[in-house]
């Protein structure tokens, strides 16, 4: 397992220079430090998984990169240039697209309108929407990603959770995202649907996109990730490459490691048999 | 890699092609269209004067008086907000034009332009305050409603010494302005007020903007899910401020109609309660109060229903007291229909 110190070495020795590089980035809301000294690098064609429990600072981290919040200390550079994003538009214009878990799409709008929202194609002197062209491109892009939506006029709210995520990912890729931030894309999904989404995450990586995959599910992360960062109480608790960690280690680290052990000791005193069984099941995973 | 997971891309056999009927039923204005047809047939049977073609012009005029304002109010509602000050803002605009031109002895058109600037400023103020504070539009525009209602009467009394603005009917430019805002013409024996023509033009333009332009897409998104819209780069604040200014523009237009149709006099107490009629027209026309869904054409049909019922009750010789009760029932019915539509659209 590497620490934040040796991480800097990785970044310089990698043949692939990072598109987004965070160095010692912090964010405080008044007297609350939501994020402290976080370093992270995102490279093309790599999936960087950010794991952490609720309140670990994952959302704050995304919001900084996506341009919803500015950071208060440290340095964030995009394509080698130091940046402070004032709005999501600036982040988007730098090639960073964010797919949020619940606010990815407007539910009552049709699929094609959602697909082109904010990037509408217009024609003619009155800048009329080129509906036919947008529908055609949306259909092509979705088919390319392997998503079958027979009627692009139907509201996005009618799609399943997995389909919605896929539409959002296909949209981000189509509009030339170089970095894709996925905010817990599998959190609300069943096993099959999660598989579908993970498949598109890999497709995005293969298309040369740098992916930041936020999740609290180490199994999903380990299926696709190249690099793992675990956040705990706003700090980086672990930062390592796939080759240097096993799923078991990642799960333990993610689940709280030593804390979990202490907890199981505590619980064992109450009712040894049931608790030990449960913990073993939990670690074996699904 | 693509083959490792069973592909969901193969056409889903649970999805069947939608029939024309199903597609029609998913239009937001369908409920109001059916309602309008029922009401039309009903009054054609119940009220003999309703069948008189000459009264068609009157019914359309009555509808247009609400319909012109229902255009921006529908857009605003689709954009997720509403404006309680819309009714008195109309009066404010009419009073401003009348009082300004009279007090400074200027050409009527100068008053008209000053009123336009003020109306746009009121809309911008509503939108800006809303975006700035993040308060619900109900509260912000309720405040503006009372401010304008009070100012209308106070400033009018201060300037003219009475509760109505001074008549500007003999001033320069009155004739030309009246021709634009409040004239009428004969079409095959039917007297058509010019505002009916304007109404149709405004509905056509607004419907086109809503459905066929980028701005329209942004309006739907701003009302449907403001956070999602902002995240993909839609300037939600600008869209909403723009919508309030659109309400301002139409309030100005309706105010000018009010001023010039009444020979250059506007009563300062007018307009209170009209904001609800605009909102009813929009809701009956299929706009969701919560935003993100609706239609400008629907709002126009809502206004038409209003016009037909208001005059139909009179033509049928009934006591007009029934009208408001009917209006309330229509609103409830429309709201329930909309709720069902929304639930169906959001259901997986």
TrEMBL record, chain A:
Family matches, as SMART domains: AAA
Keyword field contains ATP-binding: yes
InterPro entries registered for this protein in UniProt: AAA+_ATPase (IPR003593), ABC_carbohydrate_import_ATPase (IPR050107), ABC_transporter-like_ATP-bd (IPR003439), ABC_transporter-like_CS (IPR017871), P-loop_NTPase (IPR027417)
Pfam family, one: ABC_tran
Domain of life the protein comes from: Bacteria
Signal peptide as annotated in the record: none
Domain named ABC transporter: residues: 20-258
Gene3D superfamilies: P-loop containing nucleotide triphosphate hydrolases (3.40.50.300)
Listed transmembrane segments: none
The entry's keywords: ATP-binding, Nucleotide-binding
Keyword match Nucleotide-binding: yes
GO molecular-function terms, A-Z: ATP binding; ATP hydrolysis activity
The protein's name in its UniProt record: Sugar ABC transporter ATP-binding protein
UniProtKB/TrEMBL annotation, chain B:
InterPro entries: ABC_transp_permease
Membrane topology listed for this record: Multi-pass membrane protein
Main location: membrane
GO molecular function: transmembrane transporter activity
Pfam families: BPD_transp_2
Keywords: Cell inner membrane, Cell membrane, Membrane, Sugar transport, Transmembrane, Transmembrane helix, Transport
Compartments, record wording: Cell membrane
Keyword Transport: yes
GO cellular component: plasma membrane
Transmembrane segments: 30-47, 59-77, 108-131, 138-159, 190-211, 241-260, 272-289, 296-316, 322-341
CDD domains attached to this UniProt entry: TM_PBP1_transp_AraH_like
Function summary: Part of the binding-protein-dependent transport system for D-xylose. Probably responsible for the translocation of the substrate across the membrane.
Identification of the protein by name: Xylose transport system permease protein XylH
Protein's organism: Kribbella soli
């Amino acid at each position: 397992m590497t620490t934040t110190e040796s991480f800097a070495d990785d970044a310089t020795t990698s043949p692939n220079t990072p598109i987004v590089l965070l160095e010692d980035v912090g964010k405080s809301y008044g007297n609350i430090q939501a994020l402290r000294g976080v370093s992270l690098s995102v490279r093309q064609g790599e999936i960087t998984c950010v794991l952490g429990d609720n309140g670990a600072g994952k959302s704050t981290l995304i919001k900084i990169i996506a341009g919803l919040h500015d950071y208060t200390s440290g340095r964030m550079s995009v394509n080698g240039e130091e940046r402070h994003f004032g709005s999501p538009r600036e982040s988007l214009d730098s090639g960073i697209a964010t797919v949020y878990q619940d606010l990815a799409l407007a539910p009552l709008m049709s699929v094609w309108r959602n697909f082109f929202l904010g990037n509408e194609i217009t024609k003619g002197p009155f800048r009329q929407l080129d509906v036919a062209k947008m529908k055609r491109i949306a259909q092509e892009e979705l088919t390319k990603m392997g998503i079958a939506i027979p009627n692009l006029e139907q509201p996005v709210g009618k799609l399943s959770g997995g389909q919605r995520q896929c539409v959002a990912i296909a949209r981000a890729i189509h509009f030339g995202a170089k970095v894709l931030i996925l905010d817990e894309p599998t959190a609300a999904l069943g096993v099959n649907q999660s598989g579908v989404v993970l498949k598109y995450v890999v497709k995005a990586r293969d298309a040369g996109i740098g992916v930041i995959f936020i999740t609290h599910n180490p199994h999903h992360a380990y299926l696709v990730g190249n690099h793992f960062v675990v956040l705990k109480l706003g700090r980086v608790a672990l930062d390592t490459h796939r080759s240097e960690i096993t799923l078991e280690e990642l799960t333990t680290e993610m689940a709280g490691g030593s804390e979990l052990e202490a907890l199981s000791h505590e619980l064992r005193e109450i009712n040894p048999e049931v608790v030990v069984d449960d913990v073993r099941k939990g670690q074996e995973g699904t | 890699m693509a083959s490792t997971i069973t592909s969901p891309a193969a056409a889903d056999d649970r999805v069947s092609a939608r029939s024309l009927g199903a597609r029609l039923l998913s239009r937001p204005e369908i409920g109001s269209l059916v309602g309008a047809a029922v009401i039309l047939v009903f009054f054609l049977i119940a009220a003999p004067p309703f069948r008189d073609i000459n009264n068609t012009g009157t019914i359309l005029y009555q509808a247009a008086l609400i319909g012109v304002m229902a255009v921006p109010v529908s857009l605003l509602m689709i954009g997720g907000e509403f404006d309680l000050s819309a009714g008195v803002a109309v009066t404010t605009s009419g009073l401003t034009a009348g009082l300004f031109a009279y007090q400074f002895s200027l050409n009527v058109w100068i008053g008209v332009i000053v009123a336009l600037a003020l109306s746009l400023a009121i809309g911008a103020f509503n939108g800006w305050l809303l975006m700035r504070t993040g308060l619900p539009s109900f509260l912000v525009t309720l405040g503006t409603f009372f401010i304008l209602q009070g100012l209308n009467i106070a400033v009018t009394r201060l300037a003219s010494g009475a509760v109505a603005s001074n008549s500007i009917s003999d001033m320069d430019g009155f004739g030309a302005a009246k021709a634009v805002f409040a004239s009428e013409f004969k079409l095959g024996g039917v007297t058509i007020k010019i505002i009916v023509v304007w109404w149709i033009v405004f509905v056509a333009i607004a419907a086109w903007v809503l459905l066929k332009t980028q701005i329209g897409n942004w309006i739907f998104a701003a009302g449907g899910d403001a956070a999602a819209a902002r995240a993909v780069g839609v300037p939600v604040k600008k869209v909403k401020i723009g919508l309030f200014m659109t309400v301002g523009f139409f309030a100005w237009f309706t105010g000018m109609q009010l001023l010039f149709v009444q020979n250059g006099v506007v009563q300062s107490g007018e307009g209170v309660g009209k904001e609800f009629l605009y909102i009813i027209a929009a809701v009956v026309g299929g706009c969701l109060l919560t935003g993100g869904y609706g239609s400008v054409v629907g709002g126009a049909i809502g206004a038409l229903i209003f016009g037909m019922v208001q005059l139909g009750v009179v033509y049928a010789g009934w006591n007009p007291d029934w009208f408001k009760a009917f209006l309330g029932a229509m609103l409830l019915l429309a709201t329930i229909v909309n709720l069902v539509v929304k639930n169906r659209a959001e259901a997986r």
